[in-house]
Design a protein that fits this description.
387 residues, alpha+beta, six-stranded mixed sheet, five-stranded antiparallel sheet, 15 helices, 13 strands, 36% helix
């Protein structure tokens, strides 16, 4: 006969979470290999010695880790899901009769105790160290890239920089921003030298990257090519120059912690500037990346640098017609050496249409052009082609 399931509930159950979590479950593996024993020691100075006991910081970190592992970005949603998932409760150590922390507790601690102690960074680096010790991360061939993360700030919240002091009288975010600048960067301008600043998120940078301009940041990652394990993370202002700065910082940090620089670094053309290419070569790191070229140079049908002859004795260039281009100096903004001809020399030149659209020719060559050229040559090799 056909059975029929009758839904019923008992008043009491004998139930042990430990018996219902498979041995190969992801959270069992994490719990087996990652220790949170040092969390309380790292945070002890962030708590008062008097008053009511706080929520255990290890519990908060375990819940946040679950959110990261399972892609739950909303802390409100994370708390709701924690009520229903047996494995999540087991990993946190919360029994069915224990209260789950309120979702607002996470943001308060993230912007307070956790941020002030660099706890997340320390835990991240501890995990990377474990991966290196286990042989999972070789650290010989790395890749770097940055993602644009949109800030929770609208374009309409931007005001002229000179109005910041006035806005700080009524806006806490602007007041904190100016106080941080005074403490950390009292002599220099901040990296994001914008004419207009958001009063909602003053640190956010206004940028367009393949679409409409938005307020945002760059989230930069350094990745081990063999294992695809992330070994470095840096958040920066959304400026192309900051991607290269973050790459240098992450590589230096990785070498300090693990004893050596990698053998190679792969990246997209956004990182192919002369400064980074030269910096990598000085440290015996082979860069596999296309060079960053201006759009005008890419599309130009005029004579390139290869058509000109450099004269070491004079430090000048000779054009295809045998006329001299004099050295002007270094352009401080783009770090280019500049050579120029004169209207008189170029006026009656038979090759002028192939050389310049102006009344005289200028040559701009990056101070690290040799490193750039080696990167161009390398980009045409089999080793640099995608597989």
């Amino acid at each position: 006969m056909m059975g029929e399931h009758i839904r019923s509930e008992s008043l009491f159950y004998y139930f042990r979470l430990e018996d219902h979590i498979p041995e190969n479950h992801l959270l069992r593996l994490v719990d087996r290999h990652i220790s949170f024993a040092s969390v309380r020691e790292k945070l002890k100075d962030s708590y008062s010695e008097i008053g009511r006991p706080s929520i255990d910081p290890e519990l908060l970190l375990r819940i946040l880790l679950i959110g990261y592992l399972y892609g739950v970005t909303s802390e409100r949603k994370l708390v709701e899901e924690l009520h229903m998932h047996l494995a999540w409760r087991w990993f946190t150590g919360l029994g069915f009769d224990q209260e789950i922390p309120h979702h607002s507790t996470f943001s308060k601690n993230r912007h307070g105790r956790f941020a002030g102690s660099d706890l997340f960074e320390q835990l991240f680096e501890e995990v990377v160290s474990r991966c290196v010790a286990a042989g999972l991360v070789q650290g010989e061939h790395l890749s770097v890239d940055g993602s644009l993360i949109e800030a929770n700030a609208s374009r309409s919240s931007r005001i002229p920089r000179e109005q910041l002091a006035e806005a700080a009288q009524v806006k806490r975010t602007v007041r904190e921003y100016l106080e941080e600048l005074e403490q950390e960067n009292s002599t220099y301008e901040p990296v994001q030298q914008q004419d207009h600043i958001s009063t909602t998120d003053p640190d956010a940078t206004y940028i367009s990257k393949g679409g409409p301009a938005v307020m945002g940041y760059f989230d930069n990652y350094l990745v081990d090519n063999q294992s695809c394990v992330i070994v470095g993370v840096r958040a920066t202002a959304a400026r192309l120059s900051q991607e290269s700065a973050a790459a240098r910082d992450m590589l230096t940090r990785f070498a300090e912690r693990h004893g050596s620089m990698p053998m190679s670094l792969a990246a997209d053309a956004g990182y192919g500037n002369g400064e980074l290419l030269n910096w990598l070569e000085e440290r015996n790191i082979t860069p596999y990346m296309y060079t960053r070229e201006g759009q005008a140079r890419q599309n130009s049908k005029l004579y390139g640098i290869d058509q000109f002859t450099y004269v070491p004795e004079t430090g000048n260039y000779i054009c295809p017609e045998g006329k001299q281009l004099n050295y002007l100096g270094i352009h401080t903004k783009n770090r280019n050496h500049v050579w120029f001809s004169t209207p008189a020399r170029c006026r009656d030149c038979s090759q002028k249409p192939q050389c310049t659209t102006g009344n005289h020719r200028r040559l701009s060559i990056h101070i690290h052009e040799a490193a750039r050229q080696r990167a161009r040559d390398r980009a045409n090799t089999t080793a640099c082609k995608p597989r």
